[in-house]
Specification:
Number of strands: 12
Distance between the termini: 33 Å
Number of helices: 8
Order of helices and strands: EHEHEHHHEEHEEEEEEEHH
Largest sheet: 6 strands, mixed
Structural class: alpha/beta
Bound molecules: zinc ion
Oligomer: single chain
Strand order of the largest sheet: 3-2-1-11-12-9
Length: 242
C-alpha cells in the first residue's frame, strides 16, 4: 500500500491541485493531511473542500486552530495575524464545519501523525534538530511519527542502540528496527529554498519513503494573493521557497 502525507497547504490552491494530480500518478491508496489547510494563502475554502474530500486522515494545524476561533491570533507574527484575520472573514460556514472535524493527532498502523510535535500537539512546538527530536521519541509508541509545521523537510532516525541522526534524504528505506520522526515539508509554502510543492509517500510493502517535489503555477498563486490585498511578502516568499 502506498500512503501519501501532505501538510501545510496554507490556502494555496494551485500547489494543492498540482500535488493531488501528482499523487494520482503514484497510485496512492491513502492520503493523510497533517494540518494548516488555511492561513497565508488566498483560497481557504477551495483548499478545505479539496482536503476534506480527498484525504483519509485530516489534522488541524495552528492556523486552522486560529481560524476556528480556538486560539487568538495575537501570538502570531504580524503577517500571519493579518492573514488569519482575513481568513476569518472569508471562511464559509461549510469550511468551518469541515475544519471543526479535523483532529489534533491520529494513528494509522505503524504511523503516528500530528501537526507540530508528538509531545504536546496543542503547543505547536518545532522539531528542528536532534536535541529537540530526542525528547519527542518518548511521546509516541508507533515506529514513525509524521509531522509538518516548520515547512522544512526533515528526517530523524533513532536506531535500536539509541543513537540519533538527522539526514537529508530524497528517498530511503525504513529499517524495521529503527524509529523515525519525519517532517513531510510543505505543499503550499515551502521554506527550504526550493519553491516546488513538497509531499511524502511511503510504500508499506517495500518500506521505501520518498520526498516528491512538484512544480506548479506559482505566479498564479502570487497574483491571487495580491488581488486579495494580502501582505505582498506572502506572494514573494512563494517565488523563492522561503
Ligand atoms: Zn504551517
Amino acid at each position: 500500500m502506498i500512503v501519501a502525507f501532505i501538510s501545510d497547504v496554507h490556502a494555496n490552491l494551485e500547489a494543492l491541485q498540482a500535488v493531488l494530480t501528482d499523487i494520482e500518478k503514484q497510485h496512492v491508496d491513502r492520503i493523510h493531511f497533517l494540518g494548516d489547510a488555511v492561513g497565508y494563502g488566498s483560497e481557504p475554502n477551495a483548499c478545505v473542500e479539496l482536503i476534506d474530500s480527498n484525504c483519509d486522515i485530516k489534522l488541524l494545524g495552528n492556523h486552522d486552530y486560529a481560524a476556528l476561533g480556538l486560539e487568538s491570533p495575537a501570538s502570531f507574527n504580524d503577517v500571519a495575524r493579518v492573514s488569519i484575520e482575513w481568513t476569518l472573514t472569508e471562511l464559509s460556514s461549510r469550511s468551518t464545519t469541515a475544519l471543526a472535524d479535523f483532529e489534533m493527532e491520529a494513528v494509522d498502523g505503524n504511523f503516528f501523525m500530528t501537526h507540530a510535535s508528538p509531545r504536546t500537539p496543542e503547543l505547536w512546538e518545532y522539531v528542528l534538530n536532534i536535541e529537540s527530536a530526542r525528547e519527542q521519541f518518548k511521546h509516541f509508541e508507533q515506529q514513525v511519527a509524521f509531522v509538518g509545521h516548520s515547512h522544512l523537510p526533515a528526517f530523524f532516525c533513532k536506531r535500536s542502540d539509541d543513537t540519533l541522526s538527522q539526514r537529508y534524504i530524497t528517498e530511503s528505506e525504513l529499517d524495521p528496527d529503527s524509529r523515525y520522526i519525519i517532517n513531510v515539508g510543505s505543499v503550499g509554502q515551502p521554506r527550504d529554498h526550493d519553491p516546488r510543492a513538497c509531499y511524502v509517500t511511503v510504500d508499506t510493502d517495500t518500506n521505501i519513503i520518498r520526498y516528491h517535489r512538484v512544480e506548479y503555477d506559482i505566479s498564479k498563486a502570487v497574483a491571487r494573493i495580491e488581488s486579495q490585498g494580502l501582505p505582498q511578502i506572502l506572494g514573494e516568499r512563494l517565488l523563492v521557497g522561503r
